[in-house]
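Tokens for chain A. Residues wanted.
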């Protein structure tokens, strides 16, 4: 939807450079977007570390209210009141907000643009916040504290989207099944593609988390019938993901069949059966992938596994050109 306001406005007395911050979440993009959609969700995360949100009003529509009361550890309350300017699910939100003093007077404006992107392993959220200060005395401490405040706030959001997706904080017992098929054509001989799938040195070039957003903890691979593979890493925000696979069928240069379990921290979120088939065709290698997944105990995959696997297969292709 079109912007209906100007972030610089006519009430400007002092405006520092916009704050820009980005975070990758191990959850579907639609779930991250939905975390902004109601007071119930917002009250769980929209405040810095040590602060709480005892009251909020959220009406996710253009012109709808976005009002949040933050309470400090000492009991002081700080209101932010504003409204939605753009609502384009699940891609973009714009919220025009004002921080108020105890008398309800405006201290500064925070014009907040939020963009959501699908990424390998989940979703990326980019926030740009443009400040306009009515009270110049607020400018310096606000600019100094905003990056750290947002960092700890997004740590809370990380936990909230995992809770919403069923990856943490639920005792629900359920199984949701999903199957997907993917195909890629690589300009490389079968032997080279096979090596990228089965050799530890070749596979580490493409089978991992995004650089700068994920740190390797453990990697091992033993591609043979009965062999196992593990990839474990820590995501930005502290979440640890673990991929544990067992190989059931290995036909060199033709076929791999394996099962794997995925954990987020200590919670098992899924168990899957995967088949990879390779075939030479016109000087290229055709790779066909089928996955049948059982997503466990309320975990909401929402297609993110298929999307992430597609990104990994594209990364595999890029590794073949090295």
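Reply:
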């Amino acid at each position: 939807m079109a912007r209906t306001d100007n972030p610089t406005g006519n009430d400007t007395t002092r405006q520092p450079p916009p704050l820009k911050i980005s975070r990758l979440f191990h959850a579907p993009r639609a779930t991250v977007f939905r975390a902004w959609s109601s007071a119930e969700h917002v009250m769980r995360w929209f405040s810095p570390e040590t602060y709480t949100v005892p009251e909020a009003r959220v009406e996710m529509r253009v012109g709808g209210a976005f009002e949040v009361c933050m309470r400090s550890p000492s009991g002081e309350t700080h209101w932010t009141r504003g409204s939605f300017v753009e609502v384009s699910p699940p891609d973009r939100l714009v919220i025009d907000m004002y921080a108020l003093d105890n008398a309800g007077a405006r201290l500064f404006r925070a014009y907040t643009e939020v963009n959501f992107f699908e990424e390998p392993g989940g979703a990326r959220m980019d926030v740009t916040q443009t400040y306009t200060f009515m009270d110049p005395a607020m400018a310096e401490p606000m600019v100094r504290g905003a990056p750290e405040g947002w960092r700890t706030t997004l740590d809370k959001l990380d936990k909230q989207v995992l809770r919403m997706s069923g990856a943490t904080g639920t005792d629900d017992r359920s199984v949701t099944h999903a199957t997907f098929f993917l195909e890629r054509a690589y300009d490389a001989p079968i032997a080279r593609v096979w090596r990228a799938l089965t050799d530890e040195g070749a596979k580490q070039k493409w089978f991992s988390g995004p650089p700068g957003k994920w740190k390797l903890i453990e990697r091992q691979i033993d591609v043979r019938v009965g062999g196992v593979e593990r990839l474990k890493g820590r995501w930005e925000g502290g979440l640890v993901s673990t991929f544990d696979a067992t190989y059931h069928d290995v036909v060199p240069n033709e076929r791999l069949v394996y099962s794997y379990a995925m954990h987020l921290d200590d919670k098992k979120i899924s168990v899957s059966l995967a088949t990879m088939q390779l075939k030479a065709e016109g000087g290229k290698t055709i790779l066909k992938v089928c996955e049948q997944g059982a997503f466990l105990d309320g975990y909401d995959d929402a297609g993110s596994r298929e999307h992430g696997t597609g990104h990994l297969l594209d990364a595999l292709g890029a590794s073949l050109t090295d």
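The chain has two domains: 19-165, 175-319. The first strand starts at residue 19 and ends at 25.
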